[in-house]
Amino acid sequence: MTAGDLSGPGPSEENGQPPVNTATASARTLADPGTPFAVLDVHKALRNIERLGTRAARLGVTLRPHVKTAKSLDVAALLHDGTPCPVTVSTLAEAEAFADGGYTDITYAVGIDPHKLPRVIALLRRGVRLRILLDSAEQATFVAETSRQAGLPIPAQIEIDCDGHRGGLKPDAPGLLEIGRILHSADCLDGVLTHAGESYVAYGTEEQGLAAKNERDTAVAAAERLRAAGLPVPTVSVGSTPTAHAAEDLTGVTELRAGNYVFFDLVMAGLGVCRVEDLALSVVVTVIGHRPEYGWIVTDGGWMAMSRDRGTAVQAQDQGYGLVTDLAGHLIPDLVMTAASQEHGTLTTRDGATPPELPIGTRLRILPNHACATAAQHQGYHVIDSAAHDTAPTPAIKAFWPRVTGW
Fold first, then answer.
1. Domains in the chain, please, with CATH?
2. Nearest CA-CA partner of 362 in 314, 297, 304, 310
3. 73, 218, 229, 300: least surrounded by Cβ within 10 Å?
4. Of the given ranges (8-22, 43-57, 162-176), which has the lowest mean pLDDT?
5. What are the boundaries of the region Disordered (predicted)?
6. Tell me: the pLDDT tens digits for 290-311?
7. 407 burial level (CB within 10 Å; 0-12, 13-18, 19+)
8. pTM summary value
9. Does residue 35 contact residue 301 with C-beta atoms inside 8 Å?
10. Residue 17: pLDDT above 60?
């Protein structure tokens, strides 16, 4: 999909997503909608998508993008020239919305519980191959029993812990084979999946490369152990945005997952995975006040617009709640969003010097720490194309793309 495809209704308008309100629909430039609102630069998103797509092809693995960051059918249409591709989701609401949009190969990468299985079965009956995730014999048992009762295998992947970040089993865990056998008895065993969550504190290509190698080695070791016990492992799934961009050898892996890479954010820039100029998501805010005695510029964009995420606080360069640009996307030197209350944002200079002269009513864009968290604060994206207005002080809005919400 190219920027030229932005006119007319997108996938979201054809699949029951929330309607666009009149004010949003009539907006023509970033000077028009009420602030704060989210902005997606489609040119940068397409560039980010191409970068990882090319890498996955070189590594010889299927790329299964995680749509939890954008949660948008319209954004997903950028991934594969407008045609449905394999995707990962973090909620069943996403799975259902993407199924409505024609996606039939979906991995639900959050541990399953019994009350969600009727929705899983419903999607399977619609012809969607929805894979679920688990890491205990208890889960495997109720999945296998539900599959038998429904007369329909539920594809299930065993979550493998590669770095102690969250859930999963170590590849040598005593329960791994038991879980595999329970799932296989109901024809449900689909493979193994791991996520190198600790790569989000891996700085530079060397550390990220080691995390990627460990991620691969751990997943492959688990798969080989299951296969040695006579169990099928068709899928070996790995991925995080840092490791996906650092992996050099994915021998034994079948698919690569990542999601943040479509938008990127300041955490990823701080790790060296991307540049600040690659960030495709921002939030437009308006200057509503000044406190010169404190060196503050006050905006109408607080943590309800940006989220509470302070992911860069542990990095070498703390970016506060976000970096500040003008409406055209040019960074304002040394100006940072350093504090936030619910509906107020505070901008200050890094060195405490007098901030630039920004009159009340001035519109600015804030680049976020964590794209997933910031995007979740908004109903959708006002889409711009920086390739089409490099010299325009106020970018034109090409479209509005709604987000999927709920669980």
1. 21-42+269-400 (2.40.37.20), 67-258 (3.20.20.10)
2. 297
3. 229
4. 8-22
5. 1-22
6. 999 999 999 999 999 999 999 9
7. exposed
8. 0.93
9. yes
10. no
